[in-house]
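Problem 3 from the worked examples.
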Amino acid sequence: LQPTLKQEIVEIKAGNYTLDKDHAALLFKINHMGFSSYVGRFNEFNVSLNFDPENIEKSSIEAIIDMRSIDVNNSDFAATLLGPSWLDTQNFPQAVFRSVSIKKIDGEQLRIEGELTFLGVTKAVLMTAKLNGAANNPLTRQYTLGFAADLRFNRSEFGLKKFIPVVGDEVNIEIHSEFQRQ
């Protein structure tokens, strides 16, 4: 059942892709008192991808994250994070990332400059992505494209300064995803 993945970007089929939500994860990590990286996830998010391997610069990506879907494996702490002192999800239920430019760096590595809207503030951010490969998925019979991506930003730039430096300023977002060609 293991498909033969094509990893050269120019070999990938162009088109519009939608996120396969059953095979996607959006994790966040933040330093906790220097002891560890606190890890959580968002369970509800959607990503659309228009991919043009022949003209990477014309590709685009948009991600919409439901901030109310935070999962930190502790319901009381999740309720605190959802509140007005942290994520203020009543006023800001979503975070949005939109690409501004996409460039091939090396091999299957991409540099994605974009805009992140978080807590009602929009700032330029940089995402790096690695193309894991693409092929017809023998189980779904759909052409599937896989990526791993990393985005880092300072939460203070979006107005979230609570408990810095006890809780780190830098937030690391990891995205592991499969997309199905439409």
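Problem 4, a separate protein:
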Amino acid sequence: TLMEGCANIIPPSGGPRDSLPPLLISATPKDSMLNFTGKKIVLVFDEFVELDQKLQDNLVVSPNPDIMPMVESKLKTVTVTLKDSLRTGTTYSINFGNSIKDVNEGNFYKNFTYVFSTGDELTTGTLAGRVLLAETGIPDSTLIVVLQRNANDTAVVKNKPDYYTKLDGSGHFQFKYLPNETFHVFVLPNDYTKKYDDSTKMFSFYDVPVNVGANTDSIRLFAYQQYKPADKNQIRSTAPAEKKEEPKTGADKKED
């Protein structure tokens, strides 16, 4: 006989939390494309994605362009529109940092990098090292390492860097896809100009030019502050005190 009755319906628990980052399933043009001539890159992922609000803080394009690309997300797609003219025979990399994440759980696709070349090969030069603060010996991840081709002493003051990269939490840095050329290496804060245009900025420089491809994995730099910004409280305490007018006495009032 059949047993009659109503079963208690238990809603599914939903399973374990999704902890996996989005997976790239296609790129148009394809990653590591040679003889690249386009202006738009379309990246398709296996789930719905969105861009972090700090996209501009995360995005690093090498070589450093005059105009940063526009990056947009919609459903499972991230589209990059290049706004700057491309140099011939040059390898470009677009490092998204931690800016692409899935919509549901916010899992980041960490340090995803898309690479292409406007020439017939990808350059593979690397440059790595570590930066510490000279005063304390500890790392500061708000600093960046910049590379200048120009040997002039004022290049780091006047010119945007050819390449720059961020430090990790331990102060380590690494450049990839560099041409086999000679660069001058500097350390600066990661601000808008990426130039040494203020003597109160943290600063460091490598005392010899570096030829990429020859012993470029052990650079050590110590950042220092040539002049510390003036303390506003100290300025107030050293400013001459305003002369207060003495209250008039009764006798003074009579003389008036």
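Solution to problem 4. The longest strand covers residues 125-133. The helical segments are 55-58, 155-158, 232-238, 250-255.
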